[in-house]
Specification:
The structure holds two protein chains of two kinds.
Chain A (H helix, E strand, L loop, with lengths): L1 E3 H7 L10 H5 L10 H10 L2 E3 L14 H5 L6 H14 L5 H13 L18 H13 L3 E4 L2 H5 L4 H13 L4 E3 L9 H5 L3 H18 L3 E4 L2 H9 L12 E4 H10 L17 E5 L13 H9 L3 E3 L30 H11 L4 E4 L2 H13 L7 E4 H9 L11
Parallel strand pairs in A: 3-4, 3-5, 5-6, 7-8, 7-9, 9-10
Antiparallel strand pairs in A: 1-2
Chain B lengths: L6 E6 L11 H9 L4 E7 L5 H14 L3 E6 L2 H14 L7 E5 L1 H5 L5 H20 L7 E4 L4 E4 L3 H12 L4 E4 L14 E2 L4 E2 H14 L3 E4 L2 E9 L2 E8 L11 E5 L1 E4 L3 E3 L16 E3 H10 L11 E8 L15 H15 L4 E6 L9 H10 L3 E4 L2 E6 L7 E7 L4 E7 L1 E6 L1 E3 L3 H8 L26 E3 L9 H21 L1 E4 L4 E3 L9 H5 L5 E4 L4 E4 L9 H5 L5 E3 L4 H13 L1
Parallel strand pairs in B: 1-2, 1-3, 3-4, 6-7, 6-14, 7-10, 14-25, 16-23, 17-18, 17-23, 18-19
Antiparallel strand pairs in B: 5-26, 8-9, 11-12, 12-13, 15-24, 20-21, 21-22, 27-30, 28-29
The chains are: A alpha/beta, B alpha/beta.
């Protein structure tokens, strides 16, 4: 399948490229696969045709956007990968598993081939809260909680969503949930190159989200947060722009304002603090510059101590879960970045590797098991840590002195 | 007495710049029929000597009293045509220009429409020309002397050149010492001359010069006046609280700005971990280490030294689109010195392009590579600490010539930080009303023809405040600025704008709105008569007051209501 390069090179303004190599240099997958984004740009500029069939490695990109962050000329290299994937999608030449995920999103509103009517499964045990929140969404609410596909269906991530609901209740927020009306946000859909489906989701979701009229929206996943913040145009009942929040932003604010307090402690019986290291998700950190709020939450947890990995914040190493990589293995199965990442976390001596993203939670927890680190390192979402100290009564021995 | 208008119209081809898009002959023919036009011609280059001769000959032959030139922007050649007209006996203020290049041929594609627009612009200029009035030349006396702001190598050089003419130079320096950034360097490229040989003699001369008045720990607080007669207030810097200096004043004919640059703060590129790793340093910190002759990190002699080019330069995302012009050369210098000091160390430079344009620079770069410095094409994306070896870092890059990602281990990393506009640029820009270019540095009046002049008459630029440059270029510019700044003092008087605003005292209600509107403080309210009076020496002819005046009491000469309305009528009537 041959692509005429000229039009795309112009549309993506690739001519700004000075071939400095910061994109490929910083690309986390360039070291393990043949994907070389700098080289792709060069060929887009100097060749009139590009044979896409030889570029199976296009599916290796995690859409972490490190290349976009590093590019001194603002070229946005990752957008070329997305556009080329778009050509492959258009031509029907996509990995089978990607096709399945996209089809499932189109039919069931989630990538996991689960039934749409089962989207409320996450709320097991807090059905009353869910019903109340669904009612609130119908009648109009201040805050709309967008649960997201993975937290809705994946049993490992569901507790994160339930913990969030408990925190909202404790802080006495006027929160609404869409329930089975909630549909995939489309963040990964766009990054897999399915522009048509993405635009359809933006339109349909936009209509539903605006109809609630909420002043602000909060999501479990940085991926939903990213697309709502940067690719949707959401407004509240008054037509003002909706405030788009990741849950770590909302919680950090609630804690700072004293609206959310903790009763328990993470410290051991002997008072020793739990050492927690934090992994910045690409879609929260690099792409949206939210570095401080997750750390502020961890530091506010009683009995917790934050230890940093060397590669943190802007230099956080991608877990390889984004950009559709949850549904396609890529060309190098053996060397997972997540393996490297959990080793870095273990080297800090931390007890817990905290994350703030459903994909990171799944990829890193898997890596901890494969690497045999599960005895020493636990992978937890920040929300699960919060949940541990939310309700416990104040007579916890670690807290008494 | 009213002259009968006799207008000559000249349509310039500007080679193909205009003629390729505008039918110049057709425009010239159309202009011939306009009221008052006696002669109308087109010519390849009106600004050339034969072009100007054409105008002068016509003036004499046809007894012309007004000239309309349709060519480029008046910013470019209005002075040229005014001078030509004056030589042939026409008042320079009876020359009008129609801009059919920047505002027509360069921005349009359709030849027919561009031609029609050019005709309109010419008709409009002719309509104004009918009403043009002669204005006289005006001159004011000059207070001899030059104020130099900034005591770096640019300011020192400029002050010395001024003082050596026998005229007073006032040198204002913010810190307690002279020498600026150059004083922080070890040695200079491409000669490896030591700064300690270069700078102290210069400083000593300035300090001992009878014509230099030195203000250390001082800043310019206020500037009043105009070219030829500036009144400058100098105040003590804020950090010298214990010994607060009283405000002092200086009266000068011109001002040279030589305020230098800021060094890029590498913390704005957090991916390099500058604040996290002691062995990641800036090039200026490297100068200090080279001067001390100690390159060790935590007592260990580095085995692998890496340089990263373009840190904070050529970076649109950071808002620094410019090349800093010195980093390639100082990196060649430093890498070469490291090779000499540590012959066993591997020295690698990561670069995007190597730019060695100065005299002797490419040769110096050749020599640096000759000492064994490895140049690898590809800029570093990130630095992290090598796991298990905390003294060593890993540079994450792509060698773009190999087309392969590389993880380069190093014990010492030097970030070639670039230059940025000083944080005080805005303050000085407001103080002296100096415009800035897109890169944030001060804007010169013309990049080629008036490189040290500014939009403000009598204010000149020297050194890196105008843009990054090396020491030879800085010194050359300082000498140029000194020479230009001396012109008013040596000439003794300065011509001032004749197209000034005048107040009709009968109509003026003394409301003071012109005082508010004027950016040059030219109008002042006469408290006794309760009318506004405009100081013609301060007036720059911008017209803000005339446009603001609710009583239409201000007449903007050369842009009178009559003239401008005639121009507009010509545009809309066809």
């Amino acid at each position: 399948m041959a692509l005429k390069t000229a039009k795309m090179a112009e549309q993506l303004e690739l001519f700004g490229c000075i071939q400095c190599g910061k994109c490929t240099g910083g690309c986390p997958v360039a070291r393990k696969t043949t994907l070389n984004i700098r080289d792709l740009i060069y060929h887009m500029l100097v060749d009139s045709d590009m044979d896409l069939d030889v570029h199976e490695d296009l599916w290796d990109c995690t859409a972490c956007f490190t290349c976009v962050e590093r590019c001194p000329k603002d070229v946005q290299p990752a957008e070329l990968v997305i556009a080329l994937r778009g050509e492959l999608v258009e031509g029907g030449r996509i990995p089978e598993t990607i096709g399945t995920a996209l089809m499932s999103i189109f039919r069931q509103g989630n990538p996991s081939s689960m039934a749409r009517q089962d989207r409320d499964l996450w709320a097991e045990g807090i059905e009353d809260s869910l019903e109340q929140a669904k009612q609130a969404a119908q009648e109009g609410c201040d805050l709309l909680y967008f649960v997201g596909c993975i937290p809705s269906y994946d049993t490992r991530v569901q507790p994160v969503a339930r913990a969030l609901m408990r925190a909202f209740e404790k802080a006495d927020l006027d929160v609404g949930v869409l329930g089975t009306d909630e549909t995939c946000c489309g963040n990964e859909v766009r990054r897999m190159g399915e522009v048509g489906l993405f635009e359809m989701l933006v339109e349909e979701n936009g209509e539903i989200l605006r109809s609630v009229g909420a002043r602000r929206i909060v999501s479990t996943s940085p991926h939903c947060f990213n697309t709502f913040r940067n690719e949707y145009d959401l407004a509240d009942a008054d037509g003002d722009p909706m405030e788009i929040l990741h849950y770590t932003q909302l919680l950090a604010r609630l804690i700072e304002e004293g609206e959310l307090t903790f009763g328990g402690s993470l410290a051991a019986e002997d008072g020793e603090k739990k050492l927690i290291t934090y992994h910045d998700p690409c879609f929260l950190g690099k792409q949206n510059q939210i570095f401080d709020e997750p750390r502020a939450i961890i530091e506010a947890l009683p009995g917790a101590e934050l230890v940093e990995m060397d590669r943190n914040r802007e230099r956080s190493l991608c877990c390889e879960g984004g950009g559709g990589r949850m549904w396609v293995e890529g060309t190098n199965l053996e060397e997972r970045l997540a393996f490297q990442r959990v080793q870095e976390a273990a080297d800090t001596g931390a007890d817990v590797l905290a994350v703030a993203c459903p994909f990171c939670l799944l990829t890193l927890e898997d890596a901890v098991k494969v690497q045999g680190l599960d005895e020493q390192l636990q992978v937890m979402d920040i929300m699960e840590l919060v949940d541990l100290v939310l309700e416990e009564d104040v007579s916890n021995p670690a807290d008494e002195e | 007495m009213e002259q009968q208008p006799r207008i000559g119209v000249y349509i310039c081809h500007c080679g193909v710049n205009i003629a390729a898009t505008v039918e110049v002959e057709e425009v010239a023919e159309a202009a011939a029929d306009l009221p008052g036009v006696v002669v109308s011609r087109d010519y390849t280059y009106m600004c050339s000597d034969p072009g100007q001769a054409l105008i002068k000959d016509d003036i004499r032959e046809h007894d012309l009293n007004r000239i309309v030139v349709a060519s480029c922007s008046p910013r470019m050649h209005e002075p040229t045509f005014r001078a030509a007209a004056e030589q042939a006996g026409v008042n320079p203020y009876q020359v009008e220009m129609a801009n059919i290049r920047e505002q027509c041929s360069w921005v349009h594609k359709d030849k027919q429409q561009a031609t029609e627009k050019a005709k309109l612009l010419v008709a409009s200029a002719v309509a104004k020309a009918v009403h043009l009035e002669p204005l006289g030349d005006r001159e004011v006396d000059v207070t001899p002397g030059v104020l130099v702001i900034g005591g770096g190598i640019a300011g020192l050089t400029a002050a010395l050149d001024v003082a050596d003419t026998g005229l007073p130079a006032y040198l204002v320096e913010k810190t307690d010492h002279l020498g600026g950034r150059v004083a922080d360097l070890n040695c200079t490229f491409p000669t490896l001359e030591s700064v300690s040989d270069l700078l102290p003699p210069l400083i000593e001369r300035v300090q001992n010069h009878p014509n230099v008045t030195l203000f250390l720990n001082s800043e310019v607080k206020q500037v009043d006046g105009y070219v030829g007669n500036f009144e400058v207030t100098i105040t003590g810097t804020a950090d010298q609280e214990e010994e607060v200096l009283e405000d002092r004043t200086a009266s000068v004919g011109s001002i040279i700005v030589a305020t230098g640059y800021d060094v890029f703060d590498p913390d704005r590129k957090p991916e390099f971990g500058y604040s996290d790793y002691p062995n990641v340093i800036t090039s200026l910190e490297m100068e200090e280490r080279l001067l001390e002759g100690d390159l060790s990190v935590n007592g260990r002699t580095p085995e692998r030294v890496a340089f990263i080019q373009c840190v904070g330069s050529r970076d649109i995302q950071l808002g620094n689109p410019h090349c800093s012009r010195v980093c390639c050369m100082y990196t060649a210098k430093q890498s070469r010195l490291v090779r000499e000091m540590l012959p066993d160390a591997e020295v690698t430079v990561f670069y995007i392009d190597v730019r060695t344009f100065g005299k002797g620079s490419e040769e110096f770069y050749d020599d640096a590579r000759g000492t064994g410095v490895r140049y690898r094409r590809g800029n570093v994306s990130e630095i992290y600490r090598k796991p298990g070896e905390p003294e060593r870092v890993v540079l994450v890059a792509e060698d773009t010539l190999l087309g392969q990602p590389v993880d380069y281990e190093a014990d010492l990393v030097v970030l070639a930080v670039g230059m940025e506009p000083r944080d005080t640029t805005n303050k000085i820009s407001q103080l002296l009303k100096l415009p800035r270019s897109a890169d944030g540095f001060f804007l010169e009046a013309h990049p080629k023809l008036r490189p040290v002049d500014t939009a403000m008459a009598g204010v000149f630029l020297a050194g890196c405040c105008q843009g990054p440059k090396d020491i030879p270029d800085t010194v050359a510019q300082a000498k140029a600025a000194a020479s230009s700044a001396l012109i008013p003092s040596i000439r003794g008087s300065v011509p001032v704008e004749s197209a000034t605003a005048v107040v009709n005292q009968e109509l003026c209600a003394g409301c003071g709105m012109c005082v508010e509107a004027c950016p040059y403080d030219a109008p002042a309210l006469d408290q006794l008569w309760c009318v506004s009076r405009i100081n013609p020496v301060l007036c720059e002819g911008c017209g803000a007051c005339a446009a603001t005046c609710p009583s239409s009491a201000i007449r903007m000469q050369h842009f009178t209501a009559e003239q401008v309305l005639a121009q507009v009528d010509a545009l809309v009537s066809s």
